[in-house]
């Protein structure tokens, strides 16, 4: 067994700081309204499971969770497909303006979303997607970061693998799908996790693009627990706990792939 190092003296306090909001969220979700508002905060006198039932009963929380899941899964699938194709093209296919186009694409990462928000809203309205799940899916089907991530990892793979496949008669697309992508499972898992987290936790764009309660995502729907003068904190925290369970599950099952991807990038 490895002995604790001096680095743990730094990591342990940081981990406590990061876990504290999650613990507070769990405690408030099983507290009464009076206990949630007292200062200084303390442990609840009992466990109020009714807060979770009230969160499901007083709002269409289940529908919001389904909407968030559908939007996140479709965006993950779109990023895995489109970013892989674009990243492979930038890394392996020589064409006129390859480097210039890649640099221009990277430059979009420095543009704040608030600047493109209004033009994007006009585009979605012209396509008739406003107040639909399509308005939440279409802008996130591919991202500049995803293309950059895939392109960088494609450059780490030896070209001899592609040349051997091409000699055997495989097309460029078949080489990509059957030779290269299976070697990039950690990278694909990393892109999937990051895309899922970003899409699931997005609040600003759904706030602008949808208005009907039946097409709201869970992050947007949780604001219904907040009133103009008062907030039902136990019910809000109960809904927040339920909304974060899928995120924790996704990260738990994909963590090993995420670590492999980071390790591979460090080796390169």
UniProtKB/TrEMBL annotation:
Membrane topology category: Multi-pass membrane protein
Residues annotated as transmembrane: 7-27, 64-88, 100-122, 134-154, 175-197, 241-259
UniProt subcellular location: Cell membrane
- Keyword annotations of the record: Cell membrane, Membrane, Transmembrane, Transmembrane helix, Transport
**Does the keyword Membrane feature in the UniProt annotation?**
yes
Coiled coil (UniProt feature): none
Q: Does the keyword Ribosomal protein apply?
A: no
The record's principal subcellular location, in a coarse class, is membrane
InterPro entries in the record, alphabetically? MetI-like, MetI-like_sf
Q: Where is the ABC transmembrane type-1 domain?
A: 65-254
State the similarity comment: Belongs to the binding-protein-dependent transport system permease family.
**Protein name per the record:** Carbohydrate ABC transporter permease
């Amino acid at each position: 067994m490895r002995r604790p190092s001096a680095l743990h003296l730094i990591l342990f306090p940081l981990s406590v700081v990061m876990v504290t909001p999650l613990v507070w969220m769990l405690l408030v979700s099983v507290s009464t309204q009076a206990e949630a508002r007292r200062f200084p905060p303390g442990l609840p006198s009992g466990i109020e499971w009714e807060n979770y039932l009230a969160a499901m009963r007083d709002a269409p929380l289940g529908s919001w969770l389904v909407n968030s899941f559908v939007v996140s899964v479709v965006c993950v699938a779109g990023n895995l497909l489109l970013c892989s194709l674009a990243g492979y093209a930038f890394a392996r296919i020589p064409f006129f303006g390859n480097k210039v186009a890649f640099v221009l694409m990277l430059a979009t990462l420095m543009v704040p979303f608030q600047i493109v928000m209004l033009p994007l809203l006009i585009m979605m309205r012209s396509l008739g997607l406003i107040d639909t799940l399509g308005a939440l899916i279409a802008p996130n089907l591919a991202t500049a970061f995803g293309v950059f991530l895939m392109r960088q990892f494609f450059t780490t793979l030896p070209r001899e693998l592609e040349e051997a496949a091409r000699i055997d008669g495989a097309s460029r697309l078949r080489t990509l799908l059957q030779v290269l992508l299976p070697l990039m499972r950690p990278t694909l898992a990393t892109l999937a996790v990051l895309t899922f987290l970003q899409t699931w936790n997005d609040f600003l764009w759904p706030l602008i693009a949808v208005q009907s309660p039946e097409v709201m995502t869970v992050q947007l729907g949780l604001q219904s627990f907040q009133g103009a003068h008062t907030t039902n904190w136990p019910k809000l925290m109960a809904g927040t706990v339920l909304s974060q369970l899928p995120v924790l599950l996704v990260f738990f099952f994909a963590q090993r792939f995420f670590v492999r991807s980071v390790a591979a990038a460090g080796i390169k």
